[in-house]
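Today's session is about reading a structure prediction critically. Students often jump straight to the picture, but the first step is always the sequence itself: look for stretches that repeat, for charged clusters, for runs of hydrophobic residues. Only then move on to the predicted structure, which in these notes is written as discrete structure tokens rather than atom positions. Here is the chain we will use throughout the hour.
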Amino acid sequence: MGALRAELIAAIGDALYASKICSYAQGMSLIAAGAREWNWKISLREIARIWKGGCIIRALLLDPIMQAFERQPKLPNLLLDSYFQARITAAAPAWRKVVGVAASLGIPVPAIAASLAYFDSYTAALLPQNLTQAQRDFFGAHTYQRLGHPEAGFIHSDWNTLIPGSSR
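Below is the predicted structure for this chain, in token form.
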């Protein structure tokens, strides 16, 4: 039981670290989006430096964040920086394990689970929004774009003829 406990504790550490990276990645991306929207002249590297130097945050993780924005001042997301990619990749299996174990035991881990969902959404080539588009088209003829045929543009389908026995 001792080895399993130690393994889970180590996995929780990895999950917390990966979640923390994602929290900063998401926060910095939101600040950058606000800067673009409202023409703020800000430096994300400088924000990390200010936080490190006197704010209540003062996290050691702010040092590699500053370095990431020194390497690439217009970095769209910390998850695209090689340093953070390596850390997330290394932590991902333990992170997934922690979320799975917690869910199977009915233990809520909202921040860890939400950070993993953010990571998965950010790195996924395809997301389930195409199902939402299909539902919107079915109920309100809002159109959708077929993944296998993007050249067709946005289309509308008569879903009642496509789904046997369906009726609105």
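Discussion point for the tutorial: Residues 16 and 112 are 7 Å apart (CA to CA).
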